[in-house]
Amino acid sequence: MWQCPECLFLYDPNAKTASGVDLEDLPDNWICPQCATPKDRFEKIGGDDDE
Ligand SMILES: [Zn+2]
User: Fold this and answer.
1) Domains and CATH numbers, the chain
2) Average pLDDT over every residue of 32-39
3) Residue 38 Cα to ligand 1 middle (Å)
4) N or C: which end of the chain has fewer CB within 10 A?
5) Helices (DSSP H) in 1-51: which residue ranges?
6) How far does residue 3's CA lie from ligand 1's centre (Å)?
């Protein structure tokens, strides 16, 4: 799970709209759909590791 530092938009790779694509695998020019913050400013949150 990734979060936009500006608008707190959540990017969930497991959401239907994301099609299982992790944020790191998106194009470098991907931006927040809500506030256009560049993806490299997103912060990884939550425990989506193998736990
Ligand atoms: Zn945003």
Assistant:
1) 1-51 (2.20.28.10)
2) 97
3) 8
4) C
5) none
6) 8
